[in-house]
Write a structure and sequence with these properties.
mainly alpha; 2 strands; globular
Length: 407
């Protein structure tokens, strides 16, 4: 039941991309709501069967709801503002809290990683082999099943991170990891999504080079392979997708100019302390059709207030730092890299609810910090050798050690 709930939750994270598929579009209930209810039911089942609600889930839930509460005082009464508040307190909260309940061991955390990357890989395959584009003109960026090019880019980045890290840590066979990373890179470049592309590269480099559990030469080889894959994908990507990447690299794309205008407007708020309320940015946006700043920190600042923004920054910083030190195994390294990836993504695209994977990444990092790791015996080369045949030596040879990551 727990693993089935984790799979349902993984589909919930990407649910918006599957709503147009005929079997799901014909459902009498919204697919996102259905998968949210299934995830909630699985979490409730875990709590009932275990006889308790994990303390970390209660603590994080209380903190999150207090964090977003100030923005509801003057929340916008528009359709966007109303839906934003509703989704924040329900769907985004579920994305943050459910993994804290469903994943009580590192194996369950790994199961969540495999489930998320499996669902994301479906979107990757559609982005490569199903040439659904954002427009009818030749060479237009591709979306496939994904609802937007950004969604395809995020999913592709997730698959690339898992494939490359799994290859380096020998958790995924090369004949699986290399094609998966290649397809993910091609799908990402087909979408023309610059943010996820750069974020994935940075997350992989930081994850592999700043972790003491990866071999330096293996990391260099994997990054070199990733560079080759991305170059081949870039050459074969649609014309306008290539142009979007080149324009971003040269600073000549209109999208970056629009982002700067959105950021500047968010920083020039007249209500620094209190915020203008959730959804309020829609009324002052300098770019029509962009009702949010495309930066989660600035979004908290302009709509929720200065103090919640500072609290969010501190929270992200503490979790990221501790998760980096907890990256001592495959699950921990993926959780740390995924958080880096989504922090960068949420800094340049989407609103606080669109970045559902960001809240999932925060939860996965918190889980990786709090769970013990079953590992090998620590190095005892500086200690006197145990006497062969003694009880101590037998226990030392046969019993695995549980290494508590944090006090």
């Amino acid at each position: 039941m727990r693993r089935a709930g984790i799979v349902a939750f993984a589909f919930f994270v990407f649910a918006g991309n599957f709503k147009t598929i005929p079997p799901f579009s014909a459902l009498p209930v919204d697919l996102t709501l259905l998968l949210a209810l299934l995830s909630l039911a699985a979490a409730a089942y875990v709590c009932v069967t275990s006889g308790r609600i994990p303390g970390r889930a209660l603590l994080v839930a209380a903190f999150f709801w207090l964090l977003i509460l100030p923005g509801t005082i003057d929340a916008s009464s528009t359709v966007y503002g109303t839906e934003k508040v509703q989704r924040l307190f329900t769907l985004s909260a579920l994305a943050l809290i459910a993994p804290l309940i469903l994943c009580t061991t590192r194996r369950e955390l790994e199961w969540l990683i495999w489930s998320l990357s499996g669902v994301a890989f479906i979107l990757v395959l559609s982005g490569v082999f199903d040439h659904k584009t954002v427009a009818d003109y030749a060479g237009a960026p591709v979306t496939g099943l994904a609802s937007t090019t950004i969604e395809l880019g995020r999913a592709s980045g997730l698959v690339m991170i898992v494939a490359v890290v799994g290859l380096v840590m020998r958790r995924i066979r090369w004949w699986v990891a290399v094609p998966a990373a290649a397809l993910a890179g091609l799908a990402m470049l087909n979408s023309g999504s610059r943010g996820p592309l750069l974020a994935a590269i940075v997350a992989i480099v930081i994850g592999l080079f700043f972790s003491g559990r990866t071999r330096r030469m293996g990391a260099v080889a994997a990054i070199a392979l990733m560079a080759v894959v991305l170059w081949v994908g870039f050459v074969s990507a649609p014309q306008y997708a290539r142009e979007r990447v080149v324009q971003t690299a040269t600073g000549t794309d209109t999208s970056s100019t629009s982002r700067v205008a959105l950021f500047e407007t968010a920083l020039r708020s007249d209500r620094v302390i209190a915020g203008i309320g959730w959804g309020g940015f829609e009324a002052i946006t300098p770019v029509p059709g962009n009702p949010y700043p495309h930066n989660i920190v600035l979004e908290f600042f302009i709509e929720d207030g200065l103090i919640p923004m500072i609290a969010l920054l501190i929270w992200i910083g503490v979790v990221w730092w501790r998760a980096r030190h907890a990256a001592v195994d495959f699950a921990g390294l993926i959780a740390s890299a995924l958080l880096t990836y989504m922090v960068l993504n949420a800094s340049v695209s989407g609103d606080v609810n669109d970045n559902r994977l960001f809240w999932v990444a925060m939860a996965m990092a918190i889980v990786s910090i709090g769970l013990p790791v079953i590992g090998r015996q620590p190095d005892r080369s500086d200690e006197p050798d145990a006497v062969e045949g003694s009880p101590g030596s037998a226990v030392q040879a046969q019993t695995p050690v549980v290494v508590q990551l944090l006090p």
